[in-house]
Design goal:
Blueprint: H1 2-6, H2 14-17, E1 29-32, E2 38-43, E3 55-60, E4 63-70, E5 76-83, E6 87-92, E7 95-102, E8 105-108, E9 113-115, E10 117-121, H3 159-167, H4 176-186, E11 196-197, H5 203-225, H6 228-238, E12 243-245, E13 256-261, E14 274-277, H7 286-297, H8 305-314, H9 336-352, H10 361-374, H11 378-389, E15 396-398, E16 404-406, H12 407-417, H13 422-435, H14 440-445, H15 448-467, H16 477-490, H17 492-495
Parallel strand pairs: 11-12, 12-14
Antiparallel strand pairs: 1-2, 2-3, 3-4, 4-5, 5-6, 6-7, 7-8, 8-9, 10-13, 13-14, 15-16
């Protein structure tokens, strides 16, 4: 109902297209997991919704990849593969280039370096003294509880004014801040243009940033209306729910107003795209900072003339508002490109990852298990995730909703989740919970059915023990099962 009411906002603006009821009309295709994080995105390279996608991206915890421009056999002409936040491989035809992450850049095997961030610098000459300051505080956002009925304060921010406007039965178009209300209700950390807020942004920070996003949204629409290719690229980026972080991150310095991640290629990022804002700078130029950093998300760098052109074009729609037209005719397309990209990467990694790329056997097994999972092959995933869990994996991966988790824990979870036999699944669940007592990976993906299944298995196993008195005293596999149950019941995941 709220989306229907807000749909009277200025149609064909960028914010309008990211309302829940209209986002599916964008000509790109997206799949999300149970945590509402994108798992695959298909991108068309030209503004024609009847054309076949030329880019496919896939994203799972610990790995992501992209295939670009398939040849006649379906094999991608270019592909990138990212493992955790430590390794990247570029495929161009039969040529392979290896890279490693070094903080804010990639160091490639040919000794070249590629920056992964862009900055908005503070311009001293433009500084104006204002009385209002942004209060960038830190809050701890509690984990989402399945049975919680209360809405977070941010989810109902602005709701009173919105309902008052409706009660007056006004036919005036809804404003952009009314659009953001729908996003906030849909996601407790959501915002305008499909951005998500990090926990470092408190309630006041979010209000100020939402106001700034509403201020620059017409300018973004104006810029994109004059650049079809950028207009096609921006939705694919925003579909990935970029994060806005209200704290300074390295390599930001005191002279930087903000920083944004640059894509590795096209609309593909090595991690979740992020805009970091300096809490001590540029409060009066927040709108300009956000526009600048959004331009960086599209791949425009500071020294590029495209940036000045974008800024100039964004101011050229003062008389007539810009309109963005995305006419998705719902044309179907074949997905051999996705399957061929997976098989291409699987084959290359199985043949070359250890001997030619210098990966460990655990890293190789982790990637192969991940691709098997995406292909829906649980037996294949079980084989490789078991090897990965035993392979002494190193490295941490950032969770989209905040926090970090190790590659080894993800591998252990992948092995557990690939098992369908109840007793063995219980055993592997217990082993996984020793590494992750809070069950973070289960919590972010579990549905009611998923959780009920685990309880059902536990109850069934417990009943079997009760019906066979004394079985837990014997040196049998069932004794191990009793120990598994005791361990699971003691875990924070089970208790909460």
């Amino acid at each position: 109902m709220l989306t229907t009411c807000v749909s009277y906002a200025e149609p064909a603006s960028l914010g309008w297209w990211f309302l829940p009821d209209f986002i599916e009309d964008l000509p790109h295709f997206i799949e999300e997991d149970n945590a509402n994080i994108w798992s695959e995105i298909w991108v068309r390279s030209q503004p024609d919704s009847t054309s076949a996608p030329s880019v496919v991206m896939e994203n799972v915890l610990g790995a992501r990849w992209i295939g670009i421009n398939p040849d006649k056999s379906g094999k991608p002409s270019t592909a990138y593969l990212v493992l955790g936040e430590k390794r990247v491989v570029q495929f161009t035809g039969d040529q392979v280039r290896l890279g490693i992450f070094d903080e804010d850049k990639i160091i490639w095997s040919d000794k070249t370096k590629q920056s992964l961030v862009g900055f908005k610098r503070h311009r001293r000459g433009r500084r104006r003294h204002v009385s209002a300051r942004m209060n960038f505080g830190k809050i701890t956002i509690p984990p989402k509880e399945a049975k919680a009925a209360n809405l977070a304060a941010w989810s109902v921010e602005g709701m009173e004014n919105f309902l008052t406007k409706l009660s007056n039965f006004s036919f005036k178009p809804m404003g952009l801040r009314d659009i953001s209300i729908v996003s906030q209700l849909d996601d407790a950390n959501g915002g305008l243009l499909n951005f998500r807020y990090a926990s470092s942004c408190d309630f006041e920070d979010r209000q100020i940033i939402e106001n700034a996003l509403a201020e620059i949204e017409p300018k973004l629409s104006c810029w994109l209306s004059q650049n079809p290719q950028s207009a096609w690229k921006i939705p694919a980026i925003l579909l990935q729910k970029p994060i806005i972080d209200c704290r300074k991150h390295a390599p930001m310095t005191s002279e930087h107003c903000g920083m944004a991640t640059l894509p590795l290629t096209n609309e593909f990022f090595v991690t979740t795209p992020r805009i970091s804002l300096n809490p001590d700078r540029c409060h009066e130029h927040l709108g300009a900072t956000l526009f600048h950093e959004i331009a960086h998300l599209t791949g425009i760098k500071d020294d590029s003339p495209e940036l000045d052109v974008a800024l100039s074009q964004s101011e050229s729609c003062a008389q007539i508002p810009a309109k963005l037209e995305y006419q998705n005719n719902g044309e179907g397309f074949l997905n051999e490109f996705q399957v061929d990209t997976r098989m291409y990467l699987f084959t290359r990694a199985r043949q070359d990852a250890v001997e030619k790329w210098g990966w460990s056997e655990g890293e190789q097994a982790f990637l192969l298990g991940t691709i098997c999972t995406r292909m829906g092959d649980k037996y294949c995933a079980r084989r490789y995730f078991q090897a990965a869990a035993q392979g002494n994996l190193n490295g941490l991966v950032e969770l989209p909703e905040s926090g970090e988790i190790s590659l080894a824990t993800i591998a252990q979870f992948g092995f557990y989740d690939s098992i369908t036999e109840d007793l063995q699944r219980m055993h592997e669940l217990a082993k996984y919970l020793t590494k992750d007592p809070n069950g973070n990976l289960i919590r972010r993906l579990e549905t009611g059915i998923h959780r009920v299944h685990e309880f059902f298995v536990a109850r069934t196993a417990l009943q079997a023990i009760k019906e066979n008195k004394g079985i837990c005293n014997g040196d049998t596999d069932d004794h191990v099962m009793c120990e598994d149950l005791a361990q699971i019941i003691k875990s924070k995941w089970f208790q909460n």
